[in-house]
């Protein structure tokens, strides 16, 4: 990935109404972890919508 290029990450298998926190670590050309680590991204998944039809 080139510096400054946006990245899109699709996450699956997450539990509804649950908080998650993600951190990202970059690697250099030799595959070494870099010292700078992201501050973290906090997300909370939404509740599962009610799909039961009324009776």
How would you summarize the topology of this molecule?
Blueprint: E1 19-22, E2 25-27, E3 33-37, E4 41-44
Rg over CA atoms, rounded to whole Å, is 17 Å
The general outline is elongated
- Element-level helix/strand string: EEEE
Q: Enumerate how many helices there are, as a single number.
A: 0
Could you say which structural class the secondary elements and strand pairing correspond to? mainly beta
Strand order of the largest sheet: 1-4
Key features of this structure:
single chain, 55 residues, mainly beta, two-stranded antiparallel sheet, elongated
Describe this structure in a few short sentences.
By secondary structure, this protein is mostly beta strands.
């Amino acid at each position: 990935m080139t510096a400054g290029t946006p990245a899109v990450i699709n996450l699956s298998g997450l539990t509804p109404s649950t908080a998650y926190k993600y951190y990202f670590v970059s690697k250099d050309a030799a595959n070494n972890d870099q010292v700078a680590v992201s501050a973290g991204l906090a997300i909370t998944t939404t509740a599962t919508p009610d799909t039961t039809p009324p009776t």
